[in-house]
């Protein structure tokens, strides 16, 4: 290979369709594009290749590169997205309405726009590129909250300012935002607006995001309920239909007057469209109420007496009536036991007076008598063992002869605790008990004398 000042000499060793192998000095091999070889060059041809540096082209290339960098910096590096500016539009007892200007993304792309409540992510904002307000409902009454917007873009994250707000109490009516529909009485409409102005509330003719109530007296778009010609049927207004779609309560103007009178937010149930509004005096209970609606007090005899005079006699309930003395249950009734009746008491006189006025008193007295008899029988039963009983010592124990004379044994004998021995087999077959003389003649002397004990 001969080296010159401007070129190098190579021998073409192999020639392919797209690449040629050039042999240089000391068997150096280089691959060279065959399209750059001079025309007619084949295997074994000797070629000279000269290489020069193009400084002018390098300067032009560098100038183009830095111009592109400056353009990118001017377009994407100078302006950045702006943080949202959150504002409070309206606040009520249970809702908050927030608004903000349209978000400025500069040259970045939007990833998400989320709203945070008390530092926690609440929900994403729908259609963040066009939506500039949001209403949050379901809040607690008279409670403090903090709200913030977080904007995330391809250029970074940008939080908004923090808003701290407290929901209203029931006495605060400044959060009412009314949209008036068709009110047929113009005087009533003006009075309603004056009441809203006095309550520091606001109203409009179009439904907005912070509208809390839709007030009208008819759903029609016109006071007459039809068009000017009167030929078309009744058609509801556009704002009325929108209020129904947005679940905004539709009330009558009387609701505004009630809130103004009560100086607080009242229930909308009695003032819905189509309902009969209550009169201002309906909230006060009239004094001429029926005696049947008054509560009965067992401790006030005068009140009970007045109720008995104004109402028909009610059936007595022994379980619900106050317990009376047991002796009063036996007034004008035969004695249920051999125990002599007690002397009449003032309670007896009261029971007799009640039985004279009430036809059910006799039935109640019979029920009390039966229950008292059953209770006395249960009280006299001695079938249970006294666990504290101890046998007496031999010194203090009574003799056998004294045992039949104990009066306590005679008192505690009842039909429920007497064990009667079975009769002899002959008596079972005959079905009739033989006389005492017959039993003594048959040779049953070993049984001894029998004692008749009354069972009652």
Could you explain how this protein is built, in words?
The strands form four sheets. Strands 7, 8, 10, 11 and 12 form a five-stranded antiparallel β-sheet that branches. The chain has a four-stranded antiparallel β-sheet with strand order 3-2-1-4, with no helix packed on it. The protein has a four-stranded parallel β-sheet with strand order 14-13-15-16. It has ten helices and 16 strands. Among the domains are: 8-49; 87-166, Immunoglobulins (Immunoglobulin-like); 177-223 and 235-280, Rossmann fold, CATH 3.40.50.10190. The longest helix is centred in the N-terminal third of the chain and has 23 residues, at 55-77. The chain is elongated, with a radius of gyration of 56 Å. The protein is of the alpha+beta class and 456 residues long. This is Chitin biosynthesis protein. Residues 288-309, 394-417 have a biased composition (Polar residues). InterPro entries: BRCT_dom (IPR001357), BRCT_dom_sf (IPR036420), Chs5_N (IPR031673), CHS_Export/Cell_Fusion_Reg (IPR052827), Fn3_2 (IPR031669), FN3_dom (IPR003961), FN3_sf (IPR036116), Ig-like_fold (IPR013783). One of its GO terms (molecular function) is protein dimerization activity.
